Amino acid sequence: MFNLSSLKPKERKKNRKRVGRGSSSGHGNYSGRGMKGQKARSGGNIKPGFEGGRMPFIRQIPKKRGFRSIYPKNQVVDLAAVEKRVLKSPVTPQVLKQAGLIGSDKLPVKILGTRAVTKKMDFKGVKFSKPAQKAIEAAGGKVFQSPNDK
After folding, report:
1. What sign does the dihedral 23-28-32-36 (CA atoms) show?
2. Are strands 123-124 and 109-112 parallel, antiparallel or unpaired?
3. Distance from C-alpha of 10 to C-alpha of 81, rounded to nearest angstrom
4. Hey, where are the domains in the chain?
């Protein structure tokens, strides 16, 4: 029959450790704290990772493989190579990728070069060095830099 006297707890309650109740309790004398030192004192707690004031081990290890900038590096293309291998105009990163001059059309591209250019070419979405830009404009080409270039 189901009544109040037949009720039992779902799980047995675990008794908490009662320290400082005599030697025979197993937690007497030093109450499980050892003999002396910071951790034996009341209020003597140490933050995790604290190594007694020396340089912590985690800070002694050098950083893994150095530093990586959040800004991608420019893919550099020579102006002479563009003149030789690119037939389409306007020249965009997609056209340069098709010509095999760059690896990815997602990363920024910069045209370098000091030689004079004979072909008239228009460029879009590409960065330039000043001599390369002068050479392109001297040949009658136009330079349109994308607004999100820095």
Report:
1. negative
2. unpaired
3. 81
4. 75-144
Q: How many CB atoms lie within 10 A of CB 97?
A: 16
Residues 72-94: tens digit of each pLDDT:
999 999 999 999 998 888 899 99
Q: Kindly report, residue by residue over 98-119, the tens digit of the pLDDT.
A: 999 999 989 999 999 988 888 8
CATH class of the domain at 75-144: alpha beta
- Cβ pair 35, 41 in contact under 8 A: no
The 3 state secondary structure assigned to the chain is CCCHHHCCCCCCCCCCCCCCCCHHHCCCCCCCCCCCCHHHCCCCCCCCCCCCCCCCHHHHCCCCCCCCCCCCCCEEEEHHHHHHHCCCCCECHHHHHHCCCCCCCCCCEEEECCCCCCCCCCEECCEECHHHHHHHHHCCCCEECCCCCC
Burial class of residue 54 in the structure, from the number of CB atoms within 10 Å of its CB (0-12 exposed, 13-18 middle, 19+ buried): exposed
